[in-house]
Amino acid sequence: MGRPARRENSGIPLRCYPFWVGPAGVGCLALYASVWSYLIVSKPGYLVVRPTIFGGGELKMMWKTLWENIMNKFFKMGKLIIFGILITVLPLCPSSAGADEKISITGSTTALPVAQRLAEDYMDTHHEVSISVAGTGSGDGIRAIIDGSADIGTSSRDMKAKEVALALEKGLKPVKQVIALDCIVPVVNSDNPLTDLNLAQLRGIYNGKIRNWKDVGGNDKPIVAISRDSSSGTFEVWQEKILNKDKVRPDAQLQASNGAVAQAVAGNKYAIGYLGIGYLNSNLKPLKVNGVTASFETTKTKVYPIFRELFMFTRGKPTGPVKAFLDFVKGPKGQKIVREEGFVAIN
Amino acid sequence: MTPAMSEGDVQMSSLSAGGNQDSNSTTSVVELKVQEGLPKYFFLAAASTSLLVMALIMIFLFREGLAIFGKVNPVSFFFGKAWYPTYDPPEFGILALIVGSVSVTLFSSLVAIPLGVGTALYLSVLAGPTVREYVKAAVELLASLPSVVLGFLGMVVIAPAMQQILDVPTGLNIVSASIVLAIMAIPTITSISEDALYAVPRDNLEASYALGATRWETMSRILVPGALSGIGTAVILGMSRAMGETMVVLMVAGGAAQIPSSLFDSVRPMPASIAAEMGEAPFGGEHYHALFAIGIVLFLMTLIFNLVATYISNRFQQKGASTL
Asked: Is B128's Cβ below 8 Å from some Cβ in A?
């Protein structure tokens, strides 16, 4: 499991700003804070209201004057404070200096981690471009392209006829590009003698109709089905390609990550699980599906059945910085990142 | 000095500042009040922060969670056995999750109570000072172990070992999760029980010994009954900790949303479900609200545990030493 876990969180916008802005702001604030702490530590009476300012001892009065006194002293250093605040807040503003071109990417949560890494790496070499990445779902990615709220929409499914019609209505011809393949492999413990299952057998195991290994040609032992959480992209593929409309059996163990599935299958000789091809390791035994071994080759040629394509949609033929970014994604550097994130590269 | 300054102020300042009239070190009633008042208000603010945060969390939790009952019937929510939140149509029945939480909590307290209370009795009655020091340090160290480390231990060591030794279908089950939760609850139970045992008046014990009772008789008839309320509180707080623990059940309980038929079945306790699904639940959707509603159930359960603990410790309090 030497790979980074596939992150499946919502998007964090990425922005570019001059590197010195952050440290300089922190420095100003630190200077400001140190002046204050010097005053407070060395002259304890500095903040305290003196009797010459007012007489009597009414609480309300006291607090008012104390406040005025503090504000008074506070504003003596006004310039420094304002400079400090400005320079700290500045990089947080969306329209920061340094990036002339902006690209926004939104859509599939499955594609989010890889889109994020692609954006980060691209911005490292192209300082003039600022890319924001968000992931809420494939439908959102396509919708964002149609209504124009994003430049690139990521999706783990093709556009539906309804969506194509909606785009045409607006005079758009969305262009789709396959950026990666998501290949899911069923795995068993290395003690399991089984080598091969077909799609119907996998479906029976996961919907609960097949409960013993002997029914699929194994030993007379119970099957422990391990699945991913029903909100994950990996589960979506499994649902679509294996379960069809069936519900996953209620006693299936739902694990929160590919790594957890690998761990659970490696530790249990009765278990079967499934995970992204990038997460296979030597402790696990991948099964052939319909007699086909899962590999980068068989996925690319579409002989292996359990996979799906990840798309990036653009509003029309990509131009300018968007085109440059997509070329990077489909080029050798981009596809290397795709492999590192556990997907199958397209070339 | 303004005319409004009273005599008392001047006396005060001369008393505290030794008559030094330098304006920086003069202390008046006003300054004293400021010096007295500032810490007071600071601590008041600190105390009200936690109150405020608690109130805000409650409001947020209930506002987000109760929204589910507009779409799902409460009866089918609490007593439905099928938890399929992402299907079409979705099913939100949390009975299996509640049973999962209750089963691991109960079984873990079965393991933790004898071990925790036994450790406390040993430490307070039988152990010599050196042994006590080491055992106490070890128990405290146990309390500081991060739950993810224990969860990892359960997942990588306990579960495969149990599966191989007992030849059960899966090692990620109620028993292994309960064992890990018990390890986490033991320090809580031990340290609170030990305090309770020390609070039993020495006079009672000495009186018992004076009447010729053995150490075992004194322990079982004087010491333990005298500390029962504290031990009860300890047990309830330990259970409440096990009920709310997330990482361990997420990693070790198996995560199958079913009503278990044996102790070696996988379950999906409520915190595990929230932790695993919240990241992917669409914001503001039914699934999102359902997860908050599970949070309400969990909150109410731990609240009840804490109320019971408070009740026990107030109701059965040892009323002072019975000296003449």
From this structure: no
